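Example 713, ligand HDE.
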Amino acid sequence: MSTKKPVAPPKSALAGTDTLDRGNTNAKLHSLEKFRSDATGQALRTNQGVKVSDNQNSLKVGARGPSLLEDFIMREKITHFDHERIPERIVHARGVGAHGYFQSYENHSALTKAGFLRDPGHKTPVFVRFSTVQGPRGSGDTVRDVRGFAVKFYTEEGNFDLVGNNMPVFFIQDAIKFPDFVHAVKPEPHNEMPTGGSAHDTFWDFVSLVPESAHMVIWAMSDRAIPKSLRSMQGFGVHTFRLINAKGVSNFVKFHWRPTVGTCSLVWDEAQKLAGKDTDFHRRDLWEAIEGGDYPEWELGVQVIPEENEHKFDFDLLDPTKLIPEELVPIMPLGKMVLNRNPDNYFAETEQVAFCPGHIVPGIDFSNDPLLQGRLFSYTDTQISRLGGPNFHELPINRPVVPFHNGQRDAMHRSTIDKGRASYEPNSIDGGWPKETPPAAQDGGFESYPERVDAHKVRQRSESFGDHFSQARLFFNSMSPHEQEHIIAAYSFELGKVEREFIRARQVNEILANIDLGLAKRVAQNLGLPAPKKGTVAVRKTAPERSPALSQANLLSGDIKTRKVAILAANGVDGAAIAALQKALAKEGAHAKLLGPTSAPVTTADGKHLAVDASMEGLPSVAFDAVFVPGGAKSIQALSSDGVALHYLLEAYKHLKAIALAGEAKQLLAVLKLEADAGLIVGGDAKALKAFIAAIAQHRVWEREPRAKAVPA
Ligand code: HDE
């Protein structure tokens, strides 16, 4: 006998439930929508379609058992559960995805025959997955690491995957070194530590022995490796690709994504604390932004290099450890991408999405970059074990929006029921279908660019790949003073975790000294090593010697759209000051959350009850861009003796955030022993709020950084 009967949901619970189209145009466009399954109003059934009457008790002989093997309902349920996990990605295991669309600004047919770049009226659905590289699926979001930035364009000519990173170069030049690099950076094999980071012996052993990694490693030691949010990251295709127009003219291109909210980072102490206080910090931010209608946007652009200019640079276009300074080749904007819908199901969409740099469409082609060439093979290969066979393209998230027919058949998990008898070509019994499509200006079959190649078959690295330090130096020289300090601190921190002194010394003397002697000396000093006197190789000058486009100091949006402000309040708070701030922020497109000593509502000085969004412990300062403390004598008295509130402010100060102290909150300056500065504003009137907003737009109060080091938060 069942102890509990299934209860039909009340009618009211069904009202307004999710439908496929949540007002997003792209939802309708995508063929995967027909695979979404909604259980609302449905009976619980087994996988064979049998209605289940009792989902609480297994089948037993008598109420106290024994249990019966014939209980097919329990066996089916537990068997399925036993196999719920699939292998996580070997790299980029932790990720988060979102749906959206891409729209071309204009007809770029002079550049490419790819349809999605020719029709400005068409919205091409996209699915994007952002990721960290080193850590497993459950690791922290804010660790120091490269971020993956993979975009699947579901175009009318098939899927195009732009599988990039948030940094424009890579650690190695040849795919054959990838397993070595990944084994070195991953947790060490004997104790599986550390999780999510590169601060350990095997990583630094490898990179100090492989000078081609120098450029990418300095990017990884820069603020780029601790992004503020996924929404504020730039993205890069890294390799040189080709775009080909209808006349067969090919240009080399480098792909770039630029976020409209600007590019900025966490500070290191904040990143470390967030890894514990909110492991999901980045995925939560992305999710909440999309749910709240702050749709993240990027502009896709390309640097275009005519074929005849291939050899006009002081580096090789095929070398993935080099970037093309934007000052040499500006970025040509192509269109914009908007992410406007969260997935319905993490596993079905974000976990099962299978990207591959080899997924291209007519009008796009590869270059001979030897790293890219290896990737073309690796991604499809890895899906075969990760997704259980060669039919992963049939999973809804991976299906193109165009129908596809070919002679491929069978294999594990085949879901298409192919009709007809001929799964071979040519055939005469199924009318010869499906048939080839010759290449054409539009809607033609894919045609590889007919590049002429005439050379010996060799295992060699081109001499043009031989310069490993000049662009690392260009990067360091292009940083603002505070960014340079962060790089010195990051090398010192990471190498400080390396147990073997000879590895630390090799990195300092044979890598850093060739990038910049000043950098090498500072790191040597922090590690207690003798300072190198000169580098080990001659490093040539780059032209330009500085690239301002590389510094995040030049990449802010100038506004405070979508920024988050914490309001600290206790009973007796000045309600009018809160309302004034909320109004000012709303006008700027920023958001505020009210935090109290606990999650209980606070009472304003004039007796109103205000619901709080969380307690100060529940939403710590690291989750916000700025902090506002309204006046109210009693509230300030309470906050002045509340260790959590005081720590909140000291921590925000230490992390160089804008802080405004309105009315009686001014008294907190003395309690905290802090002095007002460009970002620590005293006052709550219109002028003070304007200054507060201007300080938030600067993202951090960099000039405070030397003073903030003394703050014990
Ligand atoms: Fe990847 N990479 N990679 N990679 N990579 C994978 O593919 C690989 C490289 C990148 O969100 C794997 O499906 C090789 C560069 C991203 O699902 C694997 C080489 C760049 C993602 C693989 C590289 C990337 C991956 C693991 C050197 C930036 C996550 C699971 C030859 C341009 C995609 C998978 C997602 C994932 C191989 C180098 C970006 C093992 C062999 C360079 C964003 O196939």
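Summary: The first strand starts at residue 95 and ends at 104.
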